[in-house]
Amino acid sequence: MTGKLVSHRYHYRNLSHANICKILEDADCQVTTQNLRMRHLPAKLTRTAIIARRNTASAKNQPKL
Helix H segments across the chain? Predict the structure, then answer.
């Protein structure tokens, strides 16, 4: 319900699944995707879970925010 109330504030272009994965991989992340199951409704209708984990060597070289 909250998403419906605030979604009109966000204006961003849609990115394809392949483009999102490429951006994350270019940032030296290991990317896996997982389709959502029936228990995840209503998110299942429009979303795929994208899990990105930064490689350990890269994470050590990054400055902490």
Answer: 2-6, 17-26, 56-61
